[in-house]
Amino acid sequence: MIEIRNLKKVLNGKKVLDGIDLDVREGETLVIMGPSGTGKSVLIKHIVGLFDPDAGDILVDGLSVIRAGGREIGLIRSKISYVFQNSALFDSLTVAQNIRLGLDAELCDREPEECTRRVRESLTHVNLGPEVLGLLPAELSGGMQKRVAIARSIVGRRKYVLYDEPTTGLDPVNAAVVNDLIARLKEEIGLTSVVVTHDVESAFFLGDRIALLAEGKIQALGTPEDMKNSENPAVQRFLSGRSNLTMVA
Ligand SMILES: Nc1ncnc2c1ncn2[C@@H]1O[C@H](COP(=O)(O)OP(=O)(O)OP(=O)(O)O)[C@@H](O)[C@H]1O
Ligand SMILES: [Mg+2]
After folding, report:
1. Domain 1-79+162-171+191-249 is of which CATH architecture?
2. What is the DSSP string of 70-100?
3. Residues lining ligand 1, CB < 6 A?
4. Is it the case that residue 65 has pLDDT exceeding 60?
Protein backbone atom coordinates (compact mmCIF):
# COMPACT_ATOMS: atom_id res chain seq x y z
CA MET A 1 0.00 0.00 0.00
CA ILE A 2 1.12 3.55 -0.73
CA GLU A 3 0.01 6.21 1.75
CA ILE A 4 0.32 9.89 0.91
CA ARG A 5 -0.09 12.07 3.98
CA ASN A 6 -0.63 15.84 4.00
CA LEU A 7 1.79 16.34 1.12
CA LYS A 8 2.70 19.95 0.34
CA LYS A 9 4.87 21.43 -2.38
CA VAL A 10 5.36 25.01 -3.56
CA LEU A 11 7.00 25.50 -6.98
CA ASN A 12 7.83 28.96 -8.33
CA GLY A 13 5.71 30.54 -5.60
CA LYS A 14 2.65 28.43 -6.49
CA LYS A 15 1.08 25.95 -4.04
CA VAL A 16 1.07 23.01 -6.44
CA LEU A 17 0.27 20.42 -3.77
CA ASP A 18 -1.58 21.89 -0.80
CA GLY A 19 -2.11 19.02 1.64
CA ILE A 20 -2.73 15.86 -0.34
CA ASP A 21 -4.01 12.75 1.46
CA LEU A 22 -4.41 9.69 -0.73
CA ASP A 23 -3.99 5.91 -0.40
CA VAL A 24 -3.23 3.44 -3.15
CA ARG A 25 -4.65 0.08 -2.07
CA GLU A 26 -3.17 -3.31 -2.87
CA GLY A 27 -4.23 -4.59 -6.28
CA GLU A 28 -6.24 -1.56 -7.32
CA THR A 29 -5.90 0.84 -10.22
CA LEU A 30 -6.15 4.34 -8.84
CA VAL A 31 -6.64 7.04 -11.45
CA ILE A 32 -5.56 10.60 -10.75
CA MET A 33 -7.25 13.01 -13.10
CA GLY A 34 -7.31 16.75 -13.30
CA PRO A 35 -6.70 19.71 -15.59
CA SER A 36 -3.35 20.27 -17.28
CA GLY A 37 -0.72 21.92 -15.08
CA THR A 38 -2.51 21.02 -11.87
CA GLY A 39 0.28 18.92 -10.33
CA LYS A 40 -0.52 15.34 -11.32
CA SER A 41 3.01 14.58 -12.53
CA VAL A 42 4.55 16.43 -9.59
CA LEU A 43 2.43 14.32 -7.21
CA ILE A 44 3.50 10.93 -8.58
CA LYS A 45 7.12 12.03 -8.93
CA HIS A 46 7.09 12.52 -5.14
CA ILE A 47 6.23 8.80 -4.75
CA VAL A 48 9.55 7.78 -6.33
CA GLY A 49 11.54 10.53 -4.61
CA LEU A 50 12.05 12.73 -7.68
CA PHE A 51 10.74 15.69 -5.66
CA ASP A 52 11.23 16.46 -1.97
CA PRO A 53 8.02 17.74 -0.38
CA ASP A 54 7.90 20.87 1.77
CA ALA A 55 5.74 18.96 4.26
CA GLY A 56 4.01 15.62 4.65
CA ASP A 57 5.07 12.05 4.07
CA ILE A 58 4.70 9.12 1.71
CA LEU A 59 4.80 5.54 2.97
CA VAL A 60 5.40 2.63 0.60
CA ASP A 61 4.55 -0.62 2.40
CA GLY A 62 5.15 1.24 5.63
CA LEU A 63 8.54 2.74 4.68
CA SER A 64 8.81 6.53 4.44
CA VAL A 65 10.11 7.71 1.06
CA ILE A 66 10.98 11.06 2.65
CA ARG A 67 12.92 9.74 5.62
CA ALA A 68 14.46 6.73 3.86
CA GLY A 69 18.23 6.29 3.92
CA GLY A 70 20.21 4.98 0.93
CA ARG A 71 19.41 1.30 1.47
CA GLU A 72 15.73 1.89 2.15
CA ILE A 73 15.29 4.15 -0.85
CA GLY A 74 16.82 1.36 -2.97
CA LEU A 75 14.29 -1.07 -1.53
CA ILE A 76 11.39 1.31 -2.16
CA ARG A 77 12.49 2.01 -5.73
CA SER A 78 12.84 -1.72 -6.41
CA LYS A 79 9.09 -2.03 -5.79
CA ILE A 80 7.98 0.76 -8.12
CA SER A 81 8.29 1.37 -11.80
CA TYR A 82 7.40 4.60 -13.52
CA VAL A 83 6.22 5.08 -17.09
CA PHE A 84 7.13 8.67 -17.96
CA GLN A 85 4.74 11.02 -19.73
CA ASN A 86 6.93 11.06 -22.87
CA SER A 87 7.86 7.32 -22.81
CA ALA A 88 11.50 8.37 -22.16
CA LEU A 89 13.17 5.63 -24.18
CA PHE A 90 16.88 6.01 -24.91
CA ASP A 91 17.19 6.99 -28.60
CA SER A 92 20.54 5.31 -29.14
CA LEU A 93 19.56 1.99 -27.53
CA THR A 94 17.57 -0.76 -29.24
CA VAL A 95 14.18 -1.92 -27.98
CA ALA A 96 15.84 -4.94 -26.32
CA GLN A 97 18.44 -2.75 -24.58
CA ASN A 98 15.78 -0.28 -23.45
CA ILE A 99 13.67 -3.05 -21.92
CA ARG A 100 16.72 -4.61 -20.25
CA LEU A 101 17.17 -1.38 -18.28
CA GLY A 102 14.12 -2.45 -16.30
CA LEU A 103 15.99 -5.51 -15.05
CA ASP A 104 18.53 -5.82 -12.30
CA ALA A 105 21.96 -5.47 -13.96
CA GLU A 106 23.46 -8.06 -11.59
CA LEU A 107 20.85 -10.61 -12.62
CA CYS A 108 21.67 -9.99 -16.30
CA ASP A 109 25.41 -10.48 -15.66
CA ARG A 110 24.74 -13.70 -13.76
CA GLU A 111 21.98 -15.14 -15.94
CA PRO A 112 21.98 -13.47 -19.36
CA GLU A 113 19.66 -16.09 -20.83
CA GLU A 114 17.07 -15.54 -18.14
CA CYS A 115 17.23 -11.80 -18.90
CA THR A 116 16.72 -12.37 -22.61
CA ARG A 117 13.77 -14.64 -21.85
CA ARG A 118 12.18 -12.01 -19.60
CA VAL A 119 12.68 -9.25 -22.18
CA ARG A 120 10.87 -11.38 -24.78
CA GLU A 121 8.13 -12.32 -22.34
CA SER A 122 7.44 -8.67 -21.44
CA LEU A 123 7.30 -7.80 -25.13
CA THR A 124 4.65 -10.49 -25.60
CA HIS A 125 2.63 -8.95 -22.75
CA VAL A 126 2.44 -5.67 -24.69
CA ASN A 127 1.51 -7.41 -27.95
CA LEU A 128 4.78 -6.81 -29.76
CA GLY A 129 6.79 -9.48 -31.57
CA PRO A 130 10.53 -10.29 -31.41
CA GLU A 131 11.06 -8.54 -34.75
CA VAL A 132 11.15 -5.17 -32.95
CA LEU A 133 13.91 -6.20 -30.49
CA GLY A 134 16.72 -4.84 -32.66
CA LEU A 135 14.97 -1.63 -33.73
CA LEU A 136 15.68 1.86 -32.42
CA PRO A 137 12.85 3.91 -30.83
CA ALA A 138 12.84 6.29 -33.83
CA GLU A 139 11.84 3.34 -36.03
CA LEU A 140 8.66 2.73 -33.98
CA SER A 141 5.30 4.51 -34.01
CA GLY A 142 4.30 6.55 -30.94
CA GLY A 143 1.95 3.79 -29.81
CA MET A 144 4.67 1.16 -30.12
CA GLN A 145 7.10 3.36 -28.16
CA LYS A 146 4.53 3.64 -25.38
CA ARG A 147 4.15 -0.14 -25.35
CA VAL A 148 7.94 -0.63 -25.19
CA ALA A 149 8.05 1.82 -22.26
CA ILE A 150 5.36 -0.25 -20.55
CA ALA A 151 7.29 -3.48 -21.32
CA ARG A 152 10.33 -1.92 -19.61
CA SER A 153 8.20 -1.04 -16.60
CA ILE A 154 6.83 -4.59 -16.15
CA VAL A 155 9.94 -6.62 -17.01
CA GLY A 156 11.37 -6.30 -13.48
CA ARG A 157 8.08 -7.57 -12.01
CA ARG A 158 7.78 -4.73 -9.60
CA LYS A 159 4.74 -4.47 -7.40
CA TYR A 160 3.61 -0.94 -8.27
CA VAL A 161 3.48 0.77 -11.65
CA LEU A 162 2.94 4.51 -11.99
CA TYR A 163 1.75 5.51 -15.47
CA ASP A 164 1.97 9.20 -16.37
CA GLU A 165 -0.49 9.99 -19.19
CA PRO A 166 -0.12 6.62 -20.91
CA THR A 167 -2.55 7.46 -23.72
CA THR A 168 -1.86 11.15 -24.30
CA GLY A 169 -0.76 11.90 -27.84
CA LEU A 170 -1.95 8.54 -29.18
CA ASP A 171 -4.63 8.11 -31.83
CA PRO A 172 -7.87 6.50 -30.54
CA VAL A 173 -6.92 3.02 -31.77
CA ASN A 174 -3.52 3.02 -30.04
CA ALA A 175 -5.04 4.67 -26.95
CA ALA A 176 -7.51 1.78 -26.73
CA VAL A 177 -4.67 -0.74 -27.16
CA VAL A 178 -2.72 0.85 -24.29
CA ASN A 179 -5.82 1.05 -22.06
CA ASP A 180 -6.63 -2.61 -22.69
CA LEU A 181 -3.03 -3.47 -21.95
CA ILE A 182 -3.02 -1.67 -18.59
CA ALA A 183 -6.29 -3.39 -17.65
CA ARG A 184 -4.96 -6.80 -18.73
CA LEU A 185 -1.68 -6.42 -16.81
CA LYS A 186 -3.68 -5.75 -13.70
CA GLU A 187 -5.66 -8.99 -14.21
CA GLU A 188 -2.74 -11.16 -15.37
CA ILE A 189 0.08 -9.98 -13.12
CA GLY A 190 -1.94 -8.48 -10.28
CA LEU A 191 -0.18 -5.12 -10.48
CA THR A 192 -1.14 -2.23 -8.28
CA SER A 193 -1.25 0.83 -10.50
CA VAL A 194 -1.58 4.58 -10.42
CA VAL A 195 -2.67 6.07 -13.73
CA VAL A 196 -2.40 9.81 -14.23
CA THR A 197 -4.57 11.12 -17.02
CA HIS A 198 -6.70 14.03 -18.10
CA ASP A 199 -8.61 11.71 -20.42
CA VAL A 200 -11.97 11.10 -18.77
CA GLU A 201 -12.82 8.06 -20.87
CA SER A 202 -9.56 6.31 -19.91
CA ALA A 203 -10.16 7.26 -16.28
CA PHE A 204 -13.60 5.65 -16.23
CA PHE A 205 -12.39 2.58 -18.13
CA LEU A 206 -9.33 1.89 -15.97
CA GLY A 207 -10.06 3.20 -12.51
CA ASP A 208 -11.24 1.12 -9.58
CA ARG A 209 -11.21 4.51 -7.91
CA ILE A 210 -10.70 7.96 -9.35
CA ALA A 211 -9.22 10.99 -7.58
CA LEU A 212 -9.77 14.47 -8.96
CA LEU A 213 -6.84 16.80 -8.31
CA ALA A 214 -7.38 20.52 -8.76
CA GLU A 215 -6.08 23.66 -7.08
CA GLY A 216 -3.60 21.70 -4.99
CA LYS A 217 -6.15 19.42 -3.38
CA ILE A 218 -7.97 16.14 -3.92
CA GLN A 219 -11.39 17.56 -4.70
CA ALA A 220 -13.16 14.20 -4.90
CA LEU A 221 -12.37 10.51 -4.62
CA GLY A 222 -14.58 7.55 -5.46
CA THR A 223 -15.52 4.79 -7.87
CA PRO A 224 -16.30 5.73 -11.48
CA GLU A 225 -19.97 5.39 -10.54
CA ASP A 226 -19.54 7.77 -7.57
CA MET A 227 -17.86 10.30 -9.83
CA LYS A 228 -20.55 10.11 -12.52
CA ASN A 229 -23.24 10.70 -9.91
CA SER A 230 -21.29 13.29 -7.94
CA GLU A 231 -22.90 16.62 -7.17
CA ASN A 232 -19.51 18.08 -6.25
CA PRO A 233 -19.14 21.22 -8.39
CA ALA A 234 -15.43 20.54 -9.06
CA VAL A 235 -16.29 17.11 -10.47
CA GLN A 236 -19.16 18.46 -12.53
CA ARG A 237 -16.96 21.24 -13.91
CA PHE A 238 -14.28 18.75 -14.93
CA LEU A 239 -16.74 16.32 -16.49
CA SER A 240 -18.68 19.03 -18.30
CA GLY A 241 -15.41 20.31 -19.78
CA ARG A 242 -15.16 16.90 -21.31
CA SER A 243 -18.64 17.02 -22.85
CA ASN A 244 -17.76 20.36 -24.51
CA LEU A 245 -14.63 18.80 -25.97
CA THR A 246 -16.65 15.84 -27.20
CA MET A 247 -19.07 18.19 -28.94
CA VAL A 248 -16.22 20.04 -30.64
CA ALA A 249 -14.67 16.73 -31.73
N1 LIG B 1 10.69 20.82 -12.06
C2 LIG B 1 9.83 21.82 -11.88
N3 LIG B 1 10.24 23.03 -11.43
C4 LIG B 1 9.37 24.04 -11.23
N5 LIG B 1 8.06 23.96 -11.46
C6 LIG B 1 7.58 22.81 -11.92
C7 LIG B 1 8.43 21.68 -12.15
N8 LIG B 1 7.66 20.65 -12.59
C9 LIG B 1 6.41 21.13 -12.64
N10 LIG B 1 6.35 22.40 -12.24
C11 LIG B 1 5.13 23.23 -12.12
O12 LIG B 1 4.21 22.53 -11.29
C13 LIG B 1 2.89 22.66 -11.79
C14 LIG B 1 2.28 21.30 -12.01
O15 LIG B 1 2.98 20.63 -13.07
P16 LIG B 1 2.66 19.14 -13.48
O17 LIG B 1 3.65 18.78 -14.51
O18 LIG B 1 2.59 18.27 -12.28
O19 LIG B 1 1.19 19.26 -14.11
P20 LIG B 1 0.27 18.10 -14.69
O21 LIG B 1 -0.99 18.09 -13.89
O22 LIG B 1 1.04 16.84 -14.76
O23 LIG B 1 -0.07 18.66 -16.16
P24 LIG B 1 -0.20 17.89 -17.58
O25 LIG B 1 -1.60 17.31 -17.56
O26 LIG B 1 -0.09 18.99 -18.57
O27 LIG B 1 0.88 16.87 -17.66
C28 LIG B 1 2.99 23.53 -13.04
O29 LIG B 1 2.68 24.85 -12.66
C30 LIG B 1 4.45 23.40 -13.45
O31 LIG B 1 4.88 24.56 -14.09
MG1 LIG C 1 1.79 15.72 -16.31
Report:
1. 3-Layer(aba) Sandwich (3.40)
2. HHHHHHHHTTEEEE-TT----TTS-HHHHHH
3. 11-12, 14, 16, 34, 36-42, 85, 165, 198
4. yes
